[in-house]
Design goal:
Layout lengths: L1 H5 L1 H19 L10 E2 L5 H4 L1 E2 L3 H8 L3 H19 L1 H11 L4 H12 L6 H12 L4 H10 L12 H17 L1 H7 L4 H9 L4 H26 L6 H6 L6 H4 L2 H11 L3 H30 L5
Length: about 300
């Protein structure tokens, strides 16, 4: 309390942000109760009838549950597996570029896709991968027939993950580039004098510097593994690739909003959030025991 009294001005600066979080994040949590009710817009949240875990059981017993859950896990796990290391590799490569002008031009090129709208990205994918698109024009010379990439489920995950890496890896590398800028150049000079190779310097200096940042970002990434990204998954969906592209987020949208089954959609969304929370706490605990780095 003495510290708060002494630095009350700092807490006054913090107050607006706390109020915003409380008003827009915590108060709306009351609406989650519709997941346990048979919600009716006419009766409101308070007046709707309680049904307990009926909607959760309905989702778990639905014939689509296994496919949707596996699609979400696979898409998220592969995206984390292939997408997480790429920004680290890009940052290390950029750190080796000594000419400032060339480095800035490379950064501009790899950062630019991040600022392209997801809708535009999806449109570009459909154009490039259509049967009459440029990629199929080349494949036709080899295979004598075009491939319907957007209609066959086995291609969906590769397209989704590859396009995500292309769009986001460059921008995600910014935080790693910033971390590497704090490395003392004398460490590299001393290691070079001692006969360390480039790979040895990257392993023992650069990666060790990035380790705390990588740990925190990895924990956060695992915590959001169930929220793979509704927008692009929905935009890339077709009636033919639905067996691979239907994930929990798109299913919630279709059942909760399009079909106006509010309570069922809220139950699925809450189920998704609980799994994300469990994963976040579990990974944070495991990482803390392994190397002492932790999110909280």
């Amino acid at each position: 309390m003495e510290y708060i009294k002494k630095n009350y001005i700092l807490y006054l600066f913090l107050l607006p942000a706390v109020l915003l979080v409380f008003i827009f994040k915590y108060i709306p949590m009351y609406g989650v109760t519709i997941a346990f009710k048979d919600f009716s817009p006419l009766k409101g949240v308070a007046g709707s009838e309680w049904v307990g875990f009926e909607h959760f059981i309905k989702f778990l017993e639905s014939p689509n549950f296994q496919q949707i859950f596996i699609n979400t896990i696979k898409l998220s796990a592969f995206d984390l597996l292939f997408g997480f290391p790429i920004p680290v590799i890009l940052a290390i490569m950029l750190n080796q570029v000594r000419r400032a002008k060339i480095k800035k031009n490379i950064q501009l090129i790899i950062y630019a896709p991040h600022f392209i709208s997801v809708v535009v990205i999806a449109g570009m994918i459909f154009i490039f991968l259509s049967p009459a698109g440029p990629l199929n024009a080349l494949l036709t010379l080899v295979l004598d027939r075009p491939i319907s990439f957007m209609s066959e489920p086995e291609y969906f995950r590769t397209i989704f993950i590859a396009s995500g890496i292309w769009q986001g890896a460059g921008f995600a590398s910014i935080i790693y580039v910033a971390a590497l800028s704090n490395v003392d150049p004398q460490l590299h000079d001393a290691a070079t004098i001692d006969g360390a190779s480039l790979l040895q310097r990257i392993r023992h200096i650069d990666l060790q510097t990035l380790k705390p940042t990588m740990t925190v970002l990895f924990i956060l990434a695992v915590g959001g593994i169930m929220t793979i990204g509704f927008e692009k998954a929905y935009l890339l969906q077709t009636s033919m690739n639905l067996p691979a592209s239907e994930i929990i987020d798109t299913y919630v949208y279709k059942r909760g909003l399009q079909a106006a089954d509010w309570s069922f959609g809220a139950a699925i969304g809450l189920f998704n959030s609980i799994i994300s929370l469990v994963l976040l706490v579990t990974v944070n605990t495991v990482v803390k025991k392994i190397n002492g780095e932790t999110l909280y």
